[in-house]
Amino acid sequence: MGDLVSDIQNLFSVQGDFFIGKEVKDKTAIYIMGFSTLIDLPKSNLYVRQIAAASSSVKELFTNLSDKLDTDINQLKKAILDGKLVIISEGGKHNAIVDPVSRNLTRSVTEPQSESPLQGPIDAFVEDIDINIGLIRKRLTSERLCHCSYEVGDLGSRKVSMLYVKGSVPEDLIKKVDQQIKQIDADIETVDDFNRVFGRRRFNLVSHFFQTELPNQATHSLRTNRIVLFLDNYPYALVFPHLLWDMFSPSIDRDFPSLVAYGLRALRVFGVIVNVLLPALYVAIISINPEVLKIDLALFVSESRQGIPFPALLETIIMVGLVDLILEAIVRLPKSVGPTITMVGGIILGQAMVEAKLVSTLLVIVTTAIVISGSVVSGIPNSLYIRLLRYPILIIAAIYGILGVFAGFLFIIVYLASLTSNGIPYTAFRMNRKEDAK
Amino acid sequence: MKKVNKTVIFSMLLLIVLSGCWDNKDIDKRVLPLVIGIAKGDNHDYEVTVQIPITKSSGLMSRIVTSKAQTVSRALGEIQTNSENAVDYSQVRLVVIQRNLASNPKELKQLIKFLMTSKEIPLNAQLAFTNESTVKLLSNINNKLGVDATSLFDYFNKGVGWAPGISNTRIWEAYRSLYSYTDDLTIPVVDSGKDTVLIYKGAAALKKGRLTQTVNLDENQLINLFKNHNADGKIENVDFASVMVKRSTIRNQALIEGNTPTVTTDLKLKIDILEVHSGITNDQIKHKLEKLIEKRFYHVFNQSKKNETDLFGFGQYYRGQIPYADLKNWRTTYYPNLKVNFHAQVSSE
User: Fold this and answer.
1) What's the CA gap between B126 and B103, in Å, rounded?
2) What is A307-329 written as a DSSP string?
3) In chain A, N or C: fewer CB atoms in 10 Å?
4) How confident is residue A322, by pLDDT bands cut at 50, 70 and 90?
5) If you ran DSSP here, which 8-state letter would residue A39 be given?
6) Percent of chain B having pLDDT more than 90?
7) Is the separation of the CB atoms in A162 and A227 below 8 Å?
8) Of A252, A312, A284, A316, nearest to A409 (Cα)?
9) How far is B19 from chain A (nearest CA, A)?
10) Contacts of A394 in chain B (CB under 8 A)
11) In the prediction, which pLDDT does A133 show?
């Protein structure tokens, strides 16, 4: 047995699924090795044997199998880890990296899980990065669509792809992103790790990426001068830079008549404002500034709160917190249990709490409005951070009343306006082609 | 960086603790008086009555609370003290002043000043006078069937097109007129009614805190017209027909020669004829109505001239034409000489 083979064998001696097989061709032993968990061994063996039968010599066999011949041990090691089949002849004279018949470890293109496009294409990105890029290429058949791929990371290398349309994205932005990705030295385990590459935000509420599961949305982003990034084993496209307007206008809107689309967007903006301000307004009006209510309404509100033991702030925090708990629980629970919890939660929150006079009926209405309006924006991370925003406003409102509500809202707008990704403000409406991306 | 974070968090906590807002009263822990009645008691003290709606699921009822004290603010404070809940005057919509207090110019002036400067009572609450005892007026609301606690306030806020003759005077307007050289106003006078909660008894003209004359509903309507309120929905009775005003426009032109100011006023009314005796033409109705309105105008105008009370606010047109130093003499020097050419022009649709 040659040195090379034993070296590799030693290297992988602790791997239970490392496989090494021996074949004889022209009285020369050849060793076939790889991970049985990544490679479909019987089929790959058969393939090698068939080629061997057709080849006249060992050397010819190797050239027939692969064009990556006679590389060094590091590359062989990497190839094995990547799920390739490595063939070494006796004595280590020749070696080859062969693309084997792999085990099917990726799922096929299915419907999106976190977005539900109404009247639009329903294919979605999957874990495999090549399939994802294929889905884009299929839609954007232009030579101007550029694709740069990178491998980053320390412990496990991770593939990153950057797609953009040449000529529409500012050159210096591409250069900057390219540099930033190349500079990555730590592992990219999560999107948040990747986020950090583009500049850590101190209070990291809003990501640098708009995540989408829909190839249509990603293609639309490419058309509107954005960069789309892919991570392998992550079934979402990361649109860079992330703009505020993204969450209000998903590309699916464009399939509707423009007036309907504008209506939908107005509805989403309204939903977000309601979601952020309504609980705060409730607290402010009930406990600090009842004078803003018209008298009939004031009397009605006062009546609906008769006998409720909690102050408005506590009452609201209880309800809003409970609702957020339910929403979170539904996500975690298996699909068979989810609806039950929803029902029980709904009955307890809506019915029992009002009947027990723990919260007022008006607050139940407010809470319902919050739950509904929280999900109108596109993108789960967006919906989450908007849900988070209402808590600080709630606290400020409990202290300063209506003034606090609007001061808090102003501060949120100021905060959002202060966010930038590589110099592009988060609150920009669109990326201009000629925009200086400094 | 860590130090900064600690400071920020600490100051945030301080903000919550020091703001002192934890003892805020929720709306259900406050009582919200709607109407305040102020009268002069027997021993030179003030009698303050407030009407507080009680929120019970079985419809709205109200409670009348009376307190007597040397000053109004003290009486209000006593109500505050004796009440079970915090009394929040921010929803007060109407302040009713009894005649025995209103007819004393000095005290009325003082009262309006107090209402204006009091931080608790909203400045856009309406003012009204009553000839009766305020306690009786406010209690009347509980004796009427099917009337809820807000009806006293609703009475004055029927909206455009419903009873346009009622004058609406807010606290701040009354306060402003105390100091105005050129503008006077009317304050409605209401009494408790037999079948309805209130009966309109005309309006009292207020000149620098002094009540000079009373005008009836129709005359007050004219005054409202000059203040650019609409007359829509006003029903007029001519001898042989009754008509409804659909639209009204008024145009004033003010000139001054020496000490004689002259105002030319054109009032255009568009009417809808509701009822008419047989054999009467539209032109007859129009002519009659024009005469009627002109007569009505000159009646009020001549009376107000005698009282030196500029009810129509004609002085407002001369603010730019008379030197400011002379303006304070408007009521005494210029107003008695004022000539108004009033033309009413009626057209039907």
Assistant:
1) 18
2) T--S-HHHHHHHHHHHHHHHHHH
3) C
4) confident
5) B
6) 3
7) yes
8) A284
9) 7
10) none
11) 92
What is the mean pLDDT of the segment spanning A58-79?
A: 80
- Tens digit of each residue's pLDDT (9 = 90 or more) over B8-44: 888 877 776 666 556 677 888 888 888 899 998 877 8
Q: Distance between CA atoms of A293 and A290, rounded to whole angstroms?
A: 6
**Residue count (chain B):** 349
Strands (E), B182-328: 185-192, 198-207, 210-215, 235-238, 241-257, 260-276
Query: Are residues A285 and B16, on separate chains, in Cβ contact within 8 Å?
Result: no
- From residue B5, alpha-carbon distances to A147, A203, A396, A418, B9 in Å are 42, 11, 19, 19, 6
pLDDT in tens, A283-311: 999 888 888 888 878 888 888 888 888 88
Specify the DSSP class assigned to residue A286: I
> Which residue has 């967006």 as its token pair?
A382
Peptide bond into A241 cis (omega under 30): yes
Q: What angle do CA A86, A186, A102 make, to 5 degrees?
A: 25
What is the DSSP pairing of strand B260-276 with strand B241-257? antiparallel
pLDDT at B58 over 70: no
Residues making up chain A, counted from first to last: 438
Residues of A with CB under 8 A from a CB of B: 285-288, 290-291, 293, 295-296, 298-299, 301-303, 305-308, 311-312, 395, 398-400
Picking from B16, B57, B150, the nearest residue to A296 by CB comes out as B150
- Token duo for residue A347: 């009955």
- What kind and span of H or E run contains A231? strand A227-231
ipTM: 0.76
Rounded to an integer, what is the distance from CA B348 to the centroid of its chain? 31
pTM for the whole thing?
0.80
According to DSSP, the β-strands at B198-207 and B185-192 are antiparallel
Distance, CA of B180 to CA of A412 (rounded, Å): 46
For A397, name the nearest residue in chain B, comparing CA atoms only.
Answer: B21
Q: pLDDT value at position A403?
A: 92
pLDDT tens for A141-159 read 888 999 999 988 877 788 8
CB contact under 8 A, B27 and A302: yes
The crossing angle, in degrees rounded to 10, of helices B105-117 and B171-179 is 120
CA-based radius of gyration for chain B:
25
